[in-house]
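Structure ticket #2291
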Amino acid sequence: MTMGTSTVTRRAALFAGAGILATPLLATGARYARAEPPMLGPARPTHYRFPLGDFEITMLHDGARQLDGPYPIFGEDQDPADVAAYAEENFLPGHRMEISFAPIVVNTGQELVLFDTGNAAGGQPDVGNTVERLEAAGYGADQVDLVVITHFHPDHIGGLMRDGGPAFPNARYAVGRVEYDWWTSDAPVGTPREGQVGLIESNVVPLAEAMSFIEDGEDVVSGISAVAAFGHSPGHMAFHLESNGNRFLIFADATNHYVMSLQRPDWHVVFDQDKDMAIESRRRLLDMLASERIPAAGYHMPFPAVGFVERVQDSYRWLPASYQLRVESGD
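Resolution: structure written out below.
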């Protein structure tokens, strides 16, 4: 199509009237010096919130660590080449991995309940941010009414203390009786777990007077009950939530990688203290989640660490939640 001279003239006049230069910048040879945009580095969300009946659940991102793996952390009893190959089949690096940490806040409408406290602040880079992430989510550390500890590994109890005192100054605490009794006895002495006792003595034992010691099936508050999931640690606990008929399971470290552990539930995990018991607990909880279609959160699932479990033959698959928990059912 040929453009007439009058059309070009009218367009030039229109641009001129609007204060727009009609001649392309490149045609003039003009160049402007400006700073190159800086690379800002990876960005992550700090929290993720959704309703559960009358409850409100907020996932906190305490941080993440990158390290060599997945073997021998996952598939400790397998051939290293097979573990690396399985990771790559699932679009993961074969020799490098990331572990993230996700404490959970449950607002019941009467109380603010925090499940696990993350890593110690300042202990390692990129983790130990639970208090800051709590504040970013709209809560102060002094608003936490109850801290529930699923088990006593450092990445769950490290944030209990800060600056020489309780990080959550107005809270009471709930811990598993079996877990507390094992770690505060002589049982860890002479075992690979002995090195963790010092942190328990500094972070957990001083809070004992404000603690409730819970057993399998007991409520920590109305609508939140303990579920024994021993093996990862001697008294590791999961927690079942129910509000207005809506259910949710916090499975903590019963399975702690969405591929290398959840899809291969029988593979040994180096962090599991009793391998056989951990496998039994893992399969039992995953079976329940898959059969009853219960949404769940895992402490080390990819953030926001919320999703569903699907059974696939003799294995399972993690399905990250999208909008399911944020929309009304319509029933």
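Closing remark: The chain has a mean pLDDT of 92.
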